[in-house]
Amino acid sequence: MQFFGGSEISPSPPVPTASGNNAYMLYVFNRNGVCLLYREWNRPLKTLNSHQDHKLMFGLLFSLKSLTAKMDPTCVDKGNLGVPQLPGQGCSFHSFRTNTYKLTFMESPSGIKIILVTHPRTGDLRESLKYIYNLYVEYVVKNPLYSPGTPIRCQLFDTTVDQYVRGLG
Amino acid sequence: MAAIYSLYIINKSGGLIFYKDYGSAGRMDTNDSLRLASLWHSMHAISQQLSPVSGCTGIELLQADTFDLHCFQSLTGTKFFVVCEPGTPHMEGLLKHIYELYTDYVLKNPFYEMEMPIRCELFDVNLAQAVQKDRVALLGR
């Protein structure tokens, strides 16, 4: 059927597939719990709407951090469970793993939290998160049109992060 | 230097039924351990909700700056978790072994009431042996 020709030339770029990409989602929160950025590459299961999901994720990180700060077996003076702590204070965590995903977490001194959710069998991603933080500093913080505390709408940052995360092992 | 810092067993509703400390620094009173246990129970449940793929059974390993937390959940919902030095190997095996001891010496004890705190001498003795053996094996490696 050549009448409807032109179908050989693909009209749009190929649909991204899950193969070769181990990343599921990326979250960036600021210190007040505002979700600055949410990207997802592969998320078949959605149980909550996005707002609820972000709140639950932030709450999980917050509570896990107070849990690790209290549980820290090497520190003598730990204070009570749930005392508010500044970023970098107290024992924090850098990743956890379940049977279906692995979550890697990083918090900058200014309270920016970067969370990358990947396949459970990915290796240590702490350096990758630092790299994403550097991208954030370069493309978002140094962007004169960006006002702090608002969701990130910055195309250059989006594409660079997308490219970088897709390239992760 | 202890490889294992502490061991917790929580029942299916998040209540702490067993806690043993093997030499972590700082004071942790009964209330603190109870609170930590129930907090872990809820975090475990939330982590299942946030899974991008279906079939998630909760956190198995939490890596903190100064310790690792390995968690094993039995089919009936009882959770065993052990706090150890970062990178301590063979913790899954140890947790499975502790689960075996729990079924043998706690569940088969006719005086034990389900979901209540564990007070069984035989369990204590065998648990101490298992942990000790694990520590010796670690020194030998």
UniProtKB/TrEMBL annotation, chain A:
A GO CC term assigned to this protein in UniProt: endoplasmic reticulum
Q: Identify the domain of life.
A: Eukaryota
Q: Record's SMART domains? A: Sybindin
Please tell me whether the keyword Kinase is annotated for this protein: no
Q: Where in the cell is it found?
A: Endoplasmic reticulum; Golgi apparatus, cis-Golgi network
Keywords of this entry:
Endoplasmic reticulum, ER-Golgi transport, Golgi apparatus, Transport
GO BP annotations of the record are: endoplasmic reticulum to Golgi vesicle-mediated transport
Q: Which residues form a coiled coil?
A: none
Q: Which InterPro entries match?
A: Longin-like_dom_sf, TRAPPC
Q: How does it assemble?
A: Part of the multisubunit transport protein particle (TRAPP) complex.
Q: Give the family per the record.
A: Belongs to the TRAPP small subunits family. BET5 subfamily.
Output this protein's name: Trafficking protein particle complex subunit
The opening ranks of the lineage are: Eukaryota, Viridiplantae, Streptophyta, Embryophyta, Tracheophyta
From TrEMBL, chain B:
**Protein family per UniProt:** Belongs to the TRAPP small subunits family. TRAPPC4 subfamily.
**Organism annotation:** Fraxinus pennsylvanica
Q: Alphabetically, which GO biological process terms does the record hold?
A: endoplasmic reticulum to Golgi vesicle-mediated transport
Read off the InterPro entries from this record. Answer: Longin-like_dom_sf, TRAPPC
Description of how the protein assembles with itself and partners = Part of the multisubunit transport protein particle (TRAPP) complex.
Major location (coarse): endoplasmic reticulum
Q: Which GO terms describe its cellular component?
A: endoplasmic reticulum; Golgi apparatus; TRAPP complex
Q: What is this protein called?
A: Trafficking protein particle complex subunit
Subcellular locations according to the entry: Endoplasmic reticulum; Golgi apparatus, cis-Golgi network; Golgi apparatus
Q: Which Pfam families match?
A: Sybindin
The reply to whether Secreted figures as a keyword in the UniProt entry is: no
Provide the leader sequence positions.
Answer: none
Record keywords? Endoplasmic reticulum, ER-Golgi transport, Golgi apparatus, Transport
